[in-house]
Amino acid sequence: TLVAGPPAVRLPRLGPWRFHAEAPESQLGFDDSGWTKADHATTKNLVYWTALGGPEPVLFMDDYGFHYGNVWYRGHFTATGSQSSLSLSCATGGPPAVCSAWLNGHFLGTWTPGPNSPTTDTFSIPRGLLRVGQDNVISVLAENEGHPEDFATSLELQKQPHGLISATLRSSSPVEPAIAWRIQGDLGGEHPVDRLHGPLNNGGLFGERMGWYEPGYRLGAAWQPVSLPDRWSARHVPPGVGWYHTTFRLNLPRGVDVPLGLRIGDSPRYAYEALIFVNGWMMGRYVNNLGPQHLFYLPAGPVLDEHGRNVVAIAVLSHGADGSGGGLGRVSLQAYGRYRGLDLSPPRP
Predict the structure, then answer these.
(1) What is the C-alpha radius of gyration for the chain, rounded to an integer number of angstroms?
(2) Number of C-alpha atoms within 13 angstroms, CB side, residue 265?
(3) What's the whole-model pTM score?
(4) What is the mean pLDDT of residues 113-120?
(5) Is 64 helix (H, G, I), strand (E, B) or coil?
(6) Burial of residue 76, with CB atoms counted within 10 A of its CB: 0-12 exposed, 13-18 middle, 19 or more buried
């Protein structure tokens, strides 16, 4: 039995915060030679492959051993100079997950696929952006809401493909150049490198692959001081992904239970998603313009050190068609209460 105890303890204010923009995968010169080639001509997912018209190559993330978390694609092609637009079809499991695209490091935009089918968006290629006769790179970050349950057997929704589905260059030329694709998700794919936290803990973001969420990660000079709330547009941070990092110490009273949560508060007009890591464990996904959850429970013991140092790392993905929603609101610790157990043991003789 639990009963209310003395007044709640005072909790530390989170900060100072440090920030690091990432998504080098979106840039032309990024080395993706170690990524998995996405060149399958057929797939085991014949139900949806047939329904989608048998696109080649097969780009479904599951076909390459990436089943959880966000994934990156990079497609290389030699431009002729006649390409005028790029159509991309993507599937994420539905809102709030989005797909974002770049061409030669230039941000094209973000779009939200539907809940039950891929969604295609077409982007005009700005004049002068193509490198005629040279290597050009399409970069796509596909977020992932996870596979649905099979609640409608006839539709086999659990087999929905996720990730990039197809890509088409359009121009006045009758023959378009072939695009050679590579894909990268969580490190190790079906054989995760991070065996402590398990396959659901992290995906294919650069910071996740580099261990930026780990409590032992050392911040370098590239991590700059920042104050919350923060707006990327005000600091000219490009759309994509950015990480926030801070530490705090706890010394909670012994003999009582003080369950804690991490709260994020912000105006819903800013469209972004945040992946919350505490001491290396992913505590939840916060969607600022959707909600409704703002408070995320931090389990004591395996996650939270109630009598020592703790590390918070938050990865933010900018949403909105133009990617302008990047940033982070106010972040704080909140106690759910303070409790002490009743001593129900029999009295000593």
Answers:
(1) 23
(2) 6
(3) 0.92
(4) 81
(5) helix
(6) middle
